Amino acid sequence: MNLEAIREAQEAIKGKLHRTPIFSSRYLSTQSGAQVWVKAELFQKTGSFKPRGATNKLRKLTPQEKSKGIISVSAGNHAQAVAFAAAKEKIPCTVIMPSNAPAMKLAATREYGANVILHDEMRTIFDRTEEVRRETGAVFLHPFDDPDVIAGQGTVGAEIFEDLPEAELVIVGVGGGALSAGVAIALKSLNPKVRVIGVEPEGAAGMTLALKTGNPVKLEKIETIADGLAAPYVGALPLEIAQKYLDDIVLVTDESIKNACRILLERAKLLVEPAGAASVAALLSGQIRGTDGKKTVCILSGGNLDLKKLGGWII
After folding, report:
1. CATH code, 3-48+146-314
2. Does residue 263 sit in helix, strand or coil?
3. Which of 39, 50, 188, 258 is catalytic?
4. What's the rounded Cα separation, in Å, for the pair 315 and 153?
5. CATH code for 51-140?
6. Could you confirm whether 301 is annotated as catalytic?
7. Looking at 48, 72, 74, 301, which residue is catalytic?
């Protein structure tokens, strides 16, 4: 994995996906003491950054592989992205999703044309996916432990550098690790002095545990409102990249994430899902050191939230 792969992905998705905006926030700057910008990936196709990686991956498949169809696994955002990208290429698509996935993410995935299979246990959802893959012969598209997916997600970092080359600190949520890995490679390759900080919910601290042990570890328990950051484990390749490029990783509470969702809606007029608000939660809760006066970018990774739960989070 390198900057060249990310640049190739950038060319591949050009014209197919949005180049999302980056803009400053006076309120977040005042509250944090940093000079704050947000990278609004909630305005991407399907409502999150995920189509970047899915689109880049599908272009690498052979005609024979495409004819077999693809299968993937996701709590929601990757599911929508794969379904969207597969529909564009007219590739049959199956996604294994947790039974408790947000209803709107389930509905959107089906509307994009995917066959959705529900599974009750998040810890064994990859095992179930492998069972279905063997039964169908479909090609597995890993949601985060794949170099082509990571390169696609890394285009977020390349865009940040192009739009704000003077950025000194970039904060990014960590689930399976593809976004943080791609962003870190892009930014560190373009500006070695920039700090890249990962953020995890306390109830899904897969990367924190992996960095401590030196290996991906399947989480025994996952408990967070940030379903987009609730991967059962981080990928081996994202972990390897994090060990080399990530400056630090911090943990945030669900309460701080809810507060960030509320502030982003009230003051920035942005309806961001909990996973997308984790970066702002880390900044505002003081979990990151050395932010005073620093030109800081918070990546808002998505906006696909369950509206039925919104009232309880923001009031």
Report:
1. 3.40.50.1100
2. helix
3. 50
4. 33
5. 3.40.50.1100
6. yes
7. 301
